[in-house]
Amino acid sequence: MFAVVALGWALSCFAQGSAPASGQPPAPQSTANAISGSIRGTVVDKSGAIIVGAQVQLTAKDQSAKDQSAKDQSAQDQSSKDAVLNHQALSGDDGQFSFVNIPPGPFHLTVTSAGFSPQTISGVLHSGEACVVPQIVLAIATDITQVQVGLTRAEVAEVAEAQLKVEEKQRVLGAIPNFYVSYIPDAAPLTPKQKFQLAVKTMVDPFTFVVVAGSAGVQQAQDHFVGYGQGTEGYAKRFGANYADTASGTFIGGAILPWLLKQDPRYFYKGTGSFQYRFLYAIANAVICKGDNRHWQPNYSNVLGNLAAGGISNIYYPAQDRNGATLTLENAAFGIAGTAASNVLQEFLIKKLTPHTVRPAPNQP
Fold this sequence. Notes:
Elements: H1 2-18, E1 37-45, E2 55-61, H2 73-82, E3 84-90, E4 96-102, E5 105-112, E6 119-125, E7 130-132, E8 136-138, H3 144-148, H4 153-167, E9 171-172, E10 176-177, E11 181-182, H5 192-203, H6 206-221, H7 231-261, E12 267-268, H8 275-284, E13 288-290, E14 296-298, H9 300-316, H10 325-348
Parallel strand pairs: 1-7, 1-8, 11-12
Antiparallel strand pairs: 1-4, 2-3, 2-5, 5-6, 9-10, 13-14
Helix pairs in contact: 5-7, 6-7, 7-9, 8-10, 9-10
């Protein structure tokens, strides 16, 4: 009997302690016991293509600060005002960003990227939630200079590095390097280090050696540059000359002169407009380029780079094939014409054959 009475008393106490009074809402959960969550999302443009290196700023209030005891009300009010969190992240190769260990509560995301208008969204993060925000779509800026305000040189370099990582994955048919093409509208200018990094990556790429070896084989079969002779020694000399031509053109026209003249050595894919407009744009880009200031200018780097490479070739080609100024001008002309032809292929064909270019982001859950 005592056990039954005791059990009934215990159940009565539990019911009174757990049930709220009639008509009264349940007491809110203390934010001191709240669990931090995460926020992630994807940044794209209006076409659905991912945007790499977009700067995402998270602003949120740390609600847990309101539960901290204070000696007086004014001290507590000041603590609440100061409890504002500011975090920054850059969208990665897949256009995605994430923030972790974020306290629950309202938050704001401000997204900026070179050449696009800033975008701001708001939301509420619940306790322990892994929040996935809808795709953040950036529109092309009508006044690009407004987008650049506030970006430091280091921040621009970070954006360029993120974009460069995408370019270094570009290979035609998954094999042929396609590093010197940007499919990102108004991509951030490369730093001097990044220009040399791109040149080195090109010259040590296995496919570069395959092309040089094949060219040397054709020259030997046609007995071109007869002064090199035949056999293993002749082939080695032709291979060395071809590799030297490629290296001098790549480093002088793609790194050294772009560094000194502050020019961008990449081709910027257009992809829009009439066939005639895009064709002329591709041809013109053999003799014009973007400067590091994002303005179009004569492509001194490519023209002078081809002339320099042609002049240097007089040092190691056989004596009977050294025509001085003639050989230099011929090599320079072939180099510029080759650049123009390559640009046309880039504009109309190569992007379709190149995996790992900027692609539309997958739908978010």
